[in-house]
Amino acid sequence: MSGDVTLVVMGGSGDLTRRLLFPAVHRLMALGRLSLSTRVVGYAIDDWTSEQFVAHLREGVEAFGDGVDEKVWASLTATARYITGDLDTAHVSALRDLVTGPVLFYLALPPSLFAPAATALGEAGFGDETAGWRRLVVEKPFGTDLTSAEALQTSLRVHWREDQIFRIDHFLGKDAVQNMLVFRLANRFVEAVWNTHSIAQVQITAAETLGLEGRWRYYDKAGALRDMLQNHLMQLFALAAMEPPSVWEPEVLREHKVEVLRAVETITDVEQQAVRGQYTAGTVAGADVVGYVNEANVPVTSTTETYAAIQLHVDSWRWQGVPFSLRSGKSLSGNVTEIALQLRPPPRSLFDDAAVGADRWIVLQLRPQESIGIDATAKKAGLGLATEQVVLSTTDTAAGGSEYSAYEQLLLDAVAGDSSLFIRGDEAMAAWRIVQPVLDAWATAGAPVAYPAGSDGPPPPAGFFTSGQTWRPLPGTPT
Known about the structure:
About 35% of the residues lie in helices and about 20% in strands. The protein is an alpha/beta fold and about 475 residues long. The strands form three sheets. A nine-stranded mixed β-sheet has the order 16-15-14-13-7-12-11-8-17. A six-stranded parallel β-sheet has the order 3-2-1-4-5-6, with helices on both faces. A two-stranded antiparallel sheet has the order 9-10.
């Protein structure tokens, strides 16, 4: 059980606090992983009372949690407080009477307010650790391009040390992501094939059948490249491509991720190494879907991409000649998030059978089911040496009701001071440097390629894949 901690939620009246953050806090306390004496303080511009804040939190637990634990609730009701104020030093200083000892400041705010909030807290002296540790959790997106990310980093570092800043990416808190690391690094036979000698290509996919779902205000400014590839998929790429760390320590792990991001060759031919698309009217899971520009509130002239794909090449011994293709899109034919590594065929085929020539993949799937699968060729039962393709697979038995969600795992880690699954500042900058040439080219390159809703997205340009390689088909998984 974690010791007594004060959780200060900047943006305590917002949807993120209600829908994601507080159901996770409540469940951790109910499970005994956070102390019942953990104090929650909300801070926001809305003119609320502490009672209104508590009601807001309970509404979130009832709607998005798994039931209210009345013992937990009684403890929270007795200690939870709410402060109304702007993000300036004078108003934020009102928190001083409510925070003592270790404090986790969670910026559940719009991205434009990250820097002002961190500055106000710092100027008010809340980064001082004389009375206990102080940590700052920053949500994504960490900037909108390299320049804005560098400016945000500079602002944060005026009052906060790098080891006090926890940049959160909920993808890294998923069991399947951590299982990928264990699967790769705890099994010598896996690591033996995890290189250019055995792997022909790597595909990292995050596809969804959903469209905007009311997120037009954010999404039309961001697009698929910023929303998914620069952060979530870049993290999966870094974990899949990094060298094995010598010891399991947060800074060693994060340094290895930064090393592989720095080793990515600069994208110089955007037309050949990147694809952007925008969905038009179509059918998804049997339902008619309007085109992106016909969605409510979206400008008909919008050139925002709802699908983005890029291909990366790592200049290292391990991955020389192996393309890493990353793609993500909305209103596609299926829901799947996975890392798939295509195995090279054997140097010589001894069996004249179609199954021998089939593609072979190692697939680590995060969604719709957390699983690991390895394609293989085996002999069919019966006379002769006829072969068949089999899948050696394991499914996470807790996937349907796992003990912790991504936010729960990352909250525990932040309270414990374990930064392994959080993004370091130079790591965020390195990821932006990779995609910046694509952002620059797309800013002046006209409209994205149209693709009908319910399809697998726009086709890659000639030269994106080498001969014989293509995207893995998306499963027709219903929403």
